[in-house]
């Protein structure tokens, strides 16, 4: 029978949110811009309407990226509170070095330790 370490002897996997809407916005906005540009060149669309489409796509991407960043920052803060803040730096370094620790978790914990146990708002995120 395989030995499983107790829950306190391992780190929970670090899995930041992946928002498919953000990926959709980032992927479709350039195509929308290209389509609108082509319609302007072909004189099918008015320049004012095209400019409004460009601005709308820029706002859409910015809003989705902002939502993704807020969700990621919230996840990071919760992860630190639930799994890291109550452990010593030496314990965290040992747990991050275990072979059972996934690479994303290892990288997050090591960055957290390198920043003197301070979570930066735009901080440790591995994509």
Structure, briefly:
The protein has 127 residues and is mostly helical.
Describe the structure.
This protein is mostly helical and 127 residues long. It has two domains: 19-71; 87-122, no CATH class. Helix content is 64%, strand content 0%. It is built from four helices and no strands. It has helices at residues 20-41, 47-84, 89-97, 103-114. The chain is elongated, with a radius of gyration of 22 Å. The chain crosses the membrane at residues 23-42. Keywords: Membrane, Transmembrane, Transmembrane helix.
The count of strands amounts to 0
The total domain count is 2
Mean pLDDT: 87
Overall geometric form: elongated
Q: What portion of residues belong to β-strands?
A: under 5%
Q: The biggest beta sheet, please?
A: none
The span between the termini is 36 Å
The whole-angstrom Rg is 22 Å
Uncertain segments? 1-5
Helix content: 55-70%
Kindly name the structural category. Answer: mainly alpha
Keywords: Membrane, Transmembrane, Transmembrane helix
Transmembrane segments: 23-42
């Amino acid at each position: 029978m395989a030995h499983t370490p107790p829950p306190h002897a391992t780190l929970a996997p670090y899995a930041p949110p992946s928002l498919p809407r953000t990926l959709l916005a980032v992927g479709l906005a350039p195509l929308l811009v290209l389509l609108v540009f082509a319609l302007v060149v072909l004189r099918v669309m008015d320049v004012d309407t095209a400019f409004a489409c460009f601005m709308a796509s820029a706002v859409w991407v910015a809003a989705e990226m902002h939502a993704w960043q807020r969700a990621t920052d919230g996840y990071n803060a919760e992860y630190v509170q639930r799994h890291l803040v109550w452990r010593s730096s030496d314990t965290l370094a040992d747990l991050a070095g275990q072979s059972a620790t996934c690479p994303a978790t290892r990288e997050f914990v090591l960055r957290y330790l390198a920043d003197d146990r301070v979570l930066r708002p735009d901080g440790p995120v591995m994509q």
